[in-house]
Every structure is written in C-alpha cells, then in structure tokens.
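JOB MANIFEST
job_type = single_chain_structure
chain_count = 1
residues = 429
[input]
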Amino acid sequence: MNAPAVQRRTLRVLTASQILGGVGVASGIAVGGLLAADLHGSATAAGLAQACSTIGAALLALPLARLMSRRGRRPGLATGYALGLTGAVCVLVAAQAHALWLLLVGMLLFGGGTTSNQQARYAATDLAIPTRRGRTLAIVVWATTVGAVTGPNLADPGARLADAIGLRHLAGSFLFSLVAFGLAAGTLLLTLRPDPLLTARAVSPGSAAGPASRLPLGAALRLVTASPTGLLGLAAVVVSHTVMVGVMVMTPVHMGEHGATLRVVGLVIGVHILGMYAFSPAVGWLADRFGRVPVVLAGALILLTATGVAGTAPEQGSAQLGVGLFLLGTGWSCGLVAGSTLLTESVPAAARPGVQGSTDLLMGLVAGLGGLAAGPVVAGPGYPMLNLLAALVVLPLVVLALGLVRSGGAPTGSGGPAPAPGVVAGEVS
C-alpha cells in the first residue's frame, strides 16, 4: 500500500471537510450565546449555551475516538458532523418554540461538529513522518480558516434570511450550520478512502491498534502525565482552549450590551478565528524546527498579552477588542498545535487514539466549566475581571514551560521531543 499517496489524499479530503465544518461550527458559535440571551434575557444564559456546546464536544470526544479506534477515522468524523447537524435542527426548533432547554440540548449535540473539527487534526498525523508531524497537524488546523472566518460573517445574512422565511431573527445562522455539517459528513463518507488510521495499521501492524487504543480516561491521562513533555502538552491544550473559550464566548455579549451591531460582532469574532487558524502552518513549522516546548511558551505569553489588551478595551473599543481577540486566537493556535504534537509523541503509538480522545474530553470539560463561569463573571464584576481571571489561569502554564526550557527539556531541531518509551523513531503513526 502506498502510504505517502494515501497521506496526500487524506490531507486533501480533510482540508475540504474542515472548510465545511468550520462554516458550520463558526456560524452557530457566533450567535448561539446571543440567541440564548435573547430567549432568557440574561448574559448568564449566553454563557450556559456556549458552555453546552463546549461540554457536548467534550462528552462526544471519547466515544467518537473509540469509534475511530474500532472502525477508522471516516465513520467517527462523519458521525460527529451528523450529530452537529442534529443539534442545529434542535436549535432552530427551540428558537421558534421559545424553549431554552431545547436550545441547550441542541447546543450539546452541536458540539459534535466541533469534536470532528478538532479530532481531524489527529487524523492528519496517522501517516505523517515524525519530523513533519507538527506541520501536518497544523495544515488541517489551518484548513478551518476559510470556513471559520466566513461563519461569523454569516450572522447578518443569516438574520435577514431568518426574517424572510419567518424564523427568529438570530436563528438564521444555524441554517448555514445545518447545510455545512451535512456536506462535511458526506464528503468524508464518500471520499476518505482508504482510511488513514486503518492504513497506518496495515503499513505498521500493531503500531496503532490493540487494547491500549481503548484506554479508560484515567489510565490515558496517567500515561500522558507520566512524562514532563506529555504533561506540558496536556496542560497547553487544556489551558489554551479554556482561556480562549471563556473570553471568546462572552465577547459578543459584552459588545452587544454596549451597542455593537451584529456586523461588528461578526467582524471581531471573524478576526479572532483568523488568529486561531491562519498562522497554524507557521506554528507547525516552528514547532518542528525549534521544538514544541518553546512554541507552547510563546503561545502562553501571547495569551497573557491578549487578556491584557481585551480586558482594558473601552466600552466602545471594538478595534481594541479585535486586536485582543486576534491575539487570543494566535495564542490558542500555538498551544493547540504544539501541545497536541507533544502529547501525541509522548505516548506509544498503540495508545494514541485513546489518549487523543481523552485529552479532548478533558479539554472540552474544563473549557465548558470556564464558559459556565464566564457568564456570571461578566454579568457581575464585568468583562475586565473575566480577562484578569483568564490571565491567572495561563500563569501556571508559563511556569511549567519555562521549567522545561531551563532544564533542557525543549530540544530544537526538526524532530522535536524524543519519542516516548515504546515508540520507535521513524515509525508510521
């Protein structure tokens, strides 16, 4: 079997599905909190809706990872998008029925689209050579850029479409999510053949299969945290995602309370998502060239800067908020790309699907709790306090990364960190 040819085809298919999935996720995320606040009349409901989406993505991460472990990436990723489509339908019905509880259920299922968008980054590494693993992972993260930047800017056209067909004003964006998720699932089912994970097993028998790929959550996390680089990778993914979600989901609500239009909100969130995805190939190259740990440290420092810029923006300071949210996305990109690569390399190949799913589960749950807490913080002490608390969450990551850099645990060179025990250098992953 020609593994390089399969890898090239895999990257093309994942790129197409990520663009579609990015439209689906970003269209809903941009207005989901606003719709919940409109139904309930409070910023707390906005944070709850966005937290449900994040928690839904987390809860689905491990089941979908186990499905992929048994049957391959194709059915697992497609199932996630199908669940996201179902969630978009629930949100549309909830908006018409003025049922906040159904909207929250819909946002939980909507998280399936996020899960597939996130776990596609691991599918890109199944057949990647170790010296290019960071760049390969980053290509798929980058592919989300087109859809993710387009999605928030569909908020205004979506509202006009909703008005034209008799839907609730803010619900129209979920029509775009519904269509995009359906197309993404169809693209994967029809064209992700042969399956990259199954091909990796065929090329390197035993390297990506077996009982270790079905690790329970606790065992998977113990395996990751057994090495300093694995612990840093896990911390980078969880902290970066939690800070990004907590600040991002409440920014549209904060802006709306101070008179920003849907168009301006969409532009700010679009700039934020541009920061998340547009520079990920450069982030991957830097991680391969100079090491994963320095890139994690850089991302943490960028996140600290982002919270300072966003947290000090004046009430009508949409431009400064845009800069802060752009930096927030860039810091997230560094943490996700370098952190995901670190944790993948820190465990034996057979354990990777289980570890990847467990990591995304923890990432989503912690970020969901952050989203839940963000609503009351903004409704009470305010948006500046939210950013201050986010900065405090980042500080331990800075300390951990600095410790590894000073101890020499941040090797440079294209290979990145040394493989974990039991992982043969140069194996197909």
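[summary]
The two ends are 15 Å apart (CA to CA).
Residues 208-212, 410-429 have pLDDT under 50 and may be disordered.
exit_status = 0
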